[in-house]
Amino acid sequence: MTPEQILLTILIIFIGHMIKGFTGFGSALVASPLMAWFMPLRAIVPLMALIGVPSGAYMMAVTRRHIDWRETLLVSAAMIVTTWIGMQVLLTVENQILKQAFAVVTVLFTLPILWNRMPTRQRRSHPLATLLVGAAAGLAGILFAVPGPPLVLYFSYTMTDDVDRFRGTLSAIFLSSGLIQTVAFAGEGMLTPDLLGLAVALTPVVFVGLWAGDWLVRRAPAQRFRWVVAAVLIANAVLLWF
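Below the sequence we write its predicted structure tokens.
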């Protein structure tokens, strides 16, 4: 990477985690499509997995008393299987095809941001449904670094009445996802010294971004901010297609 690209990466990671601190989601969904302009997805995905581990560990430590371990273990088991499948796709499919697929995924995963409505009635989770959602999250995570949207949509229906359990369980799963992906990338020899060094350098940026988002959330209208983020993501997805 050139010095300009490194600086741009730092800025994008800061913005992505500031948005996560503001809205509660979306660091990878925002950062990954923007970095796809100058980095191949084969570099972006392991980078996001690496920087997701320390932030995931911190969030899990904060919310550990509210984790639903049954759901966490089911999702993690499914992610292990589909992470391996997705890795074969990531290693063999041409980058331009991956970028076009990522453009479609970005639009689909951005629609809930525009919708911005939570279910009013909680539904019971089912082990098979949890496994299927975990499988989808594993594929989305290893291919595009965005495991969150399938999980957020599913748990918003099954944990509507318990926000603490929702946050705690997601935190544990995101840490698990980061660790599973990191092991998979290490096994394929994709964690180069340059990538590891960049991840270490970006870790403080992650925490500063989260703090900035938490500060901003008390000073700006959330819905307007969500619409701006969604508009940028959709426009970026259209351009990524070409």
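The radius of gyration is 17 Å.
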